[in-house]
Amino acid sequence: MPSTSAIFCLLALATIHLSSAHNKPEDYLKAHNEARASVGVGPMSWDHKLADYSHKHAQKLKGNCNLKKPQVSKYSETIAWSSQGEITAAEFVKMCMDGKPLYDYNSNICALNAKSTPQVMSPINSLAIFHLVVLAARIHLSSANNATQQRYVHLHNEARRNVGIGIGMTWDKTLEDHAHSYAQKLKVDCIIEHSVSHYGENLAWADYNFTVDHIVKMWVDEKQFYDYNSNTCAPNQMCGHYTQVVWRKSVRLGCAKERCNNNHQFIAICNYDPPGNAAGERPF
Ligand SMILES: *[C@@H]1O[C@H](CO)[C@@H](O)[C@H](O)[C@H]1NC(C)=O
Ligand SMILES: *[C@@H]1O[C@H](CO)[C@@H](O)[C@H](O)[C@H]1NC(C)=O
């Protein structure tokens, strides 16, 4: 698996209970997380808001059982259909994963697009492939929407992997929005002070237009001052930015950079959720 271990997939599980499959959240989670683990991606967690959303959507779809295309929403979606009785959570995920051999990670394209790969597909297979295309597209789109975001995610996860943390961070729009709106305040005076929020927060300042690499390096460079065994920082040094980066339980981040109003200084903010640096706890 290449460096992007922070592959993130917001799956709205539209469960079509044609004959009332009694899938439990744990079943869906287990099936998804096994599939993710098989390609080196950290686990998902269950979200009740998404489950409610899927449930409502399923109520609409079951009317005529027409799954032509995913509905337009801010969530990504995989939908399964079966004429052979209930779909278990494991089968549901298997249908999605059956298209995996057609997906080429390096080029991020699906063999379906290649005319040289004729496929005779039963309806169920084409559905499975459709899911995978959605899945694959989302893997790359929602893990981080652009190169800047991907770089933040990558550098954080590299630092985490270097100390054996397999759980990557993923980009989070809410955190990005928080960082962005707080950056609008800080850039006025260009003084970095922490916001009051329930997120973790790393701040950085420079008198030049620093890159994402510079920003994250400033934080990760504190590693040399942090002593894991005693869980302490060398005198007169800072370690908290580093420990936030490698805080195992912090799995989402969102960042923003702004030029200050004085025009020649820059600030950067990353917010984290759940927040790190809980007193008395080790980062990992
Ligand atoms: C990419 O993401 C960064 C950070 O979220 C944002 O500041 C920038 O505007 C985005 N660029 C594009 C082209 O969307
Ligand atoms: C800062 O540098 C980035 C590229 O790293 C560039 O996209 C951006 O426009 C620059 N911002 C300013 C205000 O110069």
Automatic annotation (TrEMBL):
Residues 1-21 form the signal peptide. It holds the Pfam family CAP. Keywords: Signal. The keyword Signal applies. Residues 23-128, 147-280 form the SCP domain. InterPro entries: Allrgn_V5/Tpx1_CS, CAP_dom, CAP_sf, CRISP-related. One of its GO terms (cellular component) is extracellular region. SMART domains: SCP (SM00198). It comes from the Eukaryota. Gene3D superfamilies: CAP. SUPFAM superfamilies: PR-1-like. This is SCP domain-containing protein.
